[in-house]
Amino acid sequence: MKKAISVINRIVSILLVAVLLFAGYVFVTVMRAGKDKVPSVFGFSFMQVATGSMEPTIPTGALIIVRKTAPEEIKVGDVITFYSSDPILEGKPNTHRVTMILNEGGILSFTTRGDAGVQDDPYPVSADQLIGRYVRYIEIGKLPEILHSRYFFFFALLVPMCIVILVEVIRVKKTAEEKAEAQKEETHEKES
Fold it and tell me: Any idea what the Cα angle at residue 175 is, between residues 173 and 177, rounded to 5°?
């Protein structure tokens, strides 16, 4: 039983270190990207769709996964995410379908349109504005509301922290009991 608990403790410790290292990597990646840039973790970016311009292909509120892609690999019909030149969007990321590719002297630019729209976007997308190619979406429903609620903090941080503290208290108590038992046996042997 003691060996099983020891193995479980080691596995949990290794997993915690791995999670902390990954969280550190993601944190550094996000900080290096800067305030106005979309961070890429292992070549993938994750964003939430704010409008219905790509419905029904991508529902409003969905979390999209975008893979960093070279401009030369983009084809007509691909859905791409890019930093928009539209003054309304102020350089923020936008996700639309490529309707035409222009190659002027080896410099690529893309004409895009939202699937819900009837005409192309008025501002072409240059290769340096490209974030990547859309991979898929994940329906997240009410997840953003949950993440912003005060109850999320309680369940995501306090409950696991209490469990860790409880496990440590039990471990310390067992260690103290084992030491007391060992001392009792040692005293009993000396008396004999």
Answer: 70
Q: How far apart are CA 135 and CA 80, in angstroms?
A: 9
Enter the tokens of residue 50. Answer: 């704010």
Tell me the whole-structure pTM to 2 decimals: 0.65
Q: With 0-12 CB in 10 A as exposed, 13-18 as middle and 19+ as buried, what is 136? A: exposed
- Apex CA 80: angle with CA 106 and CA 27, to 5°? 105
Distance CA 129, CA 94 (A): 10
Q: What is the pLDDT of residues 2-46, one digit of tens each?
A: 777 777 777 877 887 787 777 777 777 767 766 677 877 788 888
Contact of 40 with 29, CB cutoff 8 Å: yes
The position carrying tokens 């471990």 is 171
CATH 2.10.109.10 given to domain 44-140: yes
Choice between 175 and 126, residue whose per-residue pLDDT is larger: 126
